[in-house]
Amino acid sequence: MNLGIAGRWALVCAASKGLGKACAQALVSEGVNVVITARGEHTLNETARQLRAINPEVTVIAVAGDISTPEGRAAALMAHEHFDILINNAGGPPPGDFREWNRDAWLKALDANMLTPIELIKATVDGMAARGFGRIINITSSAVKSPIESLGLSNGARSGLTGFIAGLARQENLASRNVTINNLQPGSFDTDRLRDNLVAAAQESGQDSEVFLDECRSEIPAKRFGSPEEFGALCAFVCSSHAGYLTGQNLLIDGGAVRSSQ
């Protein structure tokens, strides 16, 4: 299927690895020019090289920096004059007990997982509406749908973003001008972050890491972790010209792990 977005420009956050990288790969494969951001300059530049190899016809610009800071956002937004696609993405805050979190911990979580996406949307959405095309995707978490007890910082910040998007996406001056805003809610995907977290959890509980990983897979109806490529493909479709009637939605992609009829 031709997704109809070749030649568009996308800003993809936290794109040096994991799900952000997978989204950038899928967009580049469709002929989308991308500005990719992440904090680690070396890994980001290597990802940019790989993306250029996938499709030499597109432009790939790497901007190293912390997107959760005003300086990081400004640098990314200045990399191109406009963006047709925005992929908001950031690593989640650490797990723990809410009794241990002070105000600074909450503000850091809100900055990264709620306020930064809102600031980037504010900077790009009116231009999208004026040009008659825009696709904004926020990568949140399946924990928004089914909260995880130890991830209270993430549950709170990402749920706040989800509530904000539910109202914004339905504004007539956006939805009627072919600007869609949706959230992708990933479950367990086979990324370095997932494996590091699960291995750490196994070690903390005194279990063999591979046995622990197998047990985690067995709890998912699909009996496996998702591949980043699967996630990237869904992201690219939601960004496509065919998805203009899809907005304000939370799309859960988790192999059936969250047991819900809605």
Describe it.
It comes from Pseudomonas synxantha. Its EC number is 1.1.1.100. Keywords: Oxidoreductase. With 262 residues, this protein is an alpha/beta fold. Helix 4 links the parallel strand 4 and strand 5. Helix 1 packs parallel to helix 2. The protein has nine helices and seven strands. Strands 3-2-1-4-5-6-7 form a seven-stranded parallel β-sheet, with helices on both faces.
Shape by Cα distribution:
globular
What is the percent of helical residues?
40-55%
Average residue pLDDT: 95
Strand content: 5-15%
Number of helices: 9
The order of strands across the largest sheet is: 3-2-1-4-5-6-7
Any idea what the radius of gyration is?
18 Å
What is the oligomer described by this structure? single chain
What is the number of strand segments?
Answer: 7
Low-confidence stretches: none
Give the SSE string: EHEHEHEHEHHEHHHE
Largest sheet entry: 7 strands, parallel
Structural class: alpha/beta
Q: Distance between termini?
A: 28 Å
What's the topology here?
Elements: E1 9-12, H1 18-29, E2 33-38, H2 41-54, E3 60-64, H3 70-77, E4 85-88, H4 103-131, E5 134-139, H5 152-168, H6 172-175, E6 179-186, H7 192-205, H8 209-218, H9 228-238, E7 250-253
Parallel strand pairs: 1-2, 1-4, 2-3, 4-5, 5-6, 6-7
Helix pairs in contact: 1-2, 1-9, 4-5, 7-8
